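Render this sequence as a predicted structure.
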Amino acid sequence: MDIDYDLIQRAQMLLTLEHPLVSVRDILLGEGYPQDQVVELMDATEEVLNYLVPPQYDEHKIGIDILHPGEKTQGRKPTVDILIDKRSGKIELMTPHQPETWRVANEVRKAIKRQRQTMKH
């Protein structure tokens, strides 16, 4: 399918402004671009970004993959939604636009806090 050049430029600008892909998709659809072109462009962009920019973390970090509502489990590639530094306990949200990421991160924070309290006693 040929994708409108204006659509590609607009998507690039939004991504340059560091909007998450999900937001870019919604913005483009809201601006009236054809749904089939937006979906194809965003799917291709996501695939390329996942291929070119794998999550960067070392052996001192733990990656948590969250299955978000509506995601298919079959054929799904693991992604990192939350990174936890094993030494400091610092939590980094890789998908802060997903509400489930915040919920899981809060539970992880509580668990880390409980673990540190029991280690002190």
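Summary. The mean pLDDT is 82. The beta strands are 61-64, 82-85, 91-93.
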